[in-house]
Amino acid sequence: MSHDRSAFGAFLRARRDRLTPAQAGIDAFPGPRRVPGLRREELAMLAGLSTDHYSRLEQGRQATVSQSVLAALTRALRLNEAEAAHLRDLAAPATRVRRSAPEVQRPDPGLLRLAATLDHVPVLLLGRRAEVLARNALLRAALGRPLRPGSSFLNFLFRDPLARERIVNWAEFGAWSVAAMRMEVGRRPGDQRLIAAVHDLRRTDPDVARWWDDHTVRDYASVPKRIAHPEAGPLDFNIEIVTAPHAPDQHLIVYTVEPDSSTAQVLPILASWATPESAPTWLPILGESPS
Q1: Which ranges in 59-99 belong to alpha helices (H)?
Q2: Where does the chain show beta strands of DSSP type E?
Q3: Is residue 291 part of a domain?
Q4: CATH code (residue 19)
Q5: Of 269, 267, 288, nearest to 279 (Cα)?
Q6: Nearest alpha-carbon partner for 16 in 34, 43, 41
Q7: Residues 219 and 164 in one domain
Q8: How far apart are the first and last CA of the chain?
Q9: What's the CA gap between 282 and 39, in Å, rounded?
Q10: Which CATH number fits the domain that encloses residue 187?
Q11: How many separate domains does the chain show?
């Protein structure tokens, strides 16, 4: 399935609009400016392209984009690593539609074994489309929802009022999650279920729509998360993401804490409050008894 070249052009426009001539290290071309960002001809000059060639790229009328042009655009727009990878994904050539992945995704055994050794902190294993594959009892205790295997973490984050109530820096975390979603859509443009889920969230949540239209992209990376727990009090975590080379579409989300911090001290108490529940054995809830 070919990528939608309009998405490639829209990303170029968004990045161009954010970069001023001063930031790009050039003198602004003469004449009135409608926006503070670079003009097309300024970016074309920086990338060593003709204005017509760059215009075709931004308008989605260029069927193929060479690696040298992508490298020039990356330098001219001063893209970071995640943005450069996203630009390459959007520029990928047309390919045949691959056979759909199985609807049921089983958790990677290695990631599950790693998660089992981290039972002293909240842990969550996400699969395609941010589907919950596994989580431990501390994760439920911290977030206050079961997050059963097969459910959508994005639905919890954007549609459950408790998420906004309990996650103190919800706006920061939500924007980060939307940026990661955009990155994922660029990687898997043929995933119609993912595209439909994003469309539905954009239609029903103005925050998601605003962040999506901003064209910000982020790979899965560390991000702080602050939780206001009604009994345990404030909890401060740094979210670390672990992936396995043979399971790139699964992400182990680990809620790390500073040693001897108040959060580290209260987690054992929080763990003692966690109650067991049943779950299918092949979609485990770590640390809780299967039925």
Answers
A1: 67-77, 81-90
A2: 123-126, 132-136, 223-229, 233-244, 247-256, 285-286
A3: no
A4: 1.10.260.40
A5: 288
A6: 43
A7: yes
A8: 42
A9: 54
A10: 3.30.450.180
A11: 2
